[in-house]
């Protein structure tokens, strides 16, 4: 069963919140992280962390951020579950 647009939006928001939490834990400002992943402004990071204007991190961003912050990419997906009940799989 495909995800609804609102579900996808919530997933992006959770990923953004996780990136922000991990970024702060590692003492990176939004600007420092932006520059480290090849962006010259904080727009992407600041917008994607809160889901502003539909902005979100793509897989390339997440891989770069994980490398910079020295964390497993899976940490960005904390709190996100895709479990379906058996009746939904039929």
From TrEMBL:
Protein name: HTH cro/C1-type domain-containing protein
Occurrences of domain HTH cro/C1-type (ranges): 19-76
InterPro entries recorded: Cro/C1-type_HTH, Lambda_DNA-bd_dom_sf
Family annotation (SUPFAM superfamilies): lambda repressor-like DNA-binding domains (SSF47413)
Signal peptide: none
Listed PROSITE patterns: HTH_CROC1
Matching CDD domains: HTH_XRE
Domain of life, per lineage: Bacteria
Pfam families: HTH_3
Species annotation: Helicobacter ganmani
GO terms for MF: DNA binding
């Amino acid at each position: 069963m495909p995800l609804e647009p609102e579900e996808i939006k919530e997933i992006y928001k959770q990923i953004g919140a996780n990136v922000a939490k991990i970024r702060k834990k590692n003492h990176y400002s939004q600007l420092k992280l932006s520059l480290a992943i090849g962006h010259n402004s904080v727009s992407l990071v600041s917008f994607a962390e809160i889901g502003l204007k539909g902005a979100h991190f793509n897989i390339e961003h997440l891989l770069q951020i994980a490398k910079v912050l020295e964390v497993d990419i899976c940490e960005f997906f904390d709190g996100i579950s895709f479990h379906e009940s058996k009746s939904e799989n039929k």
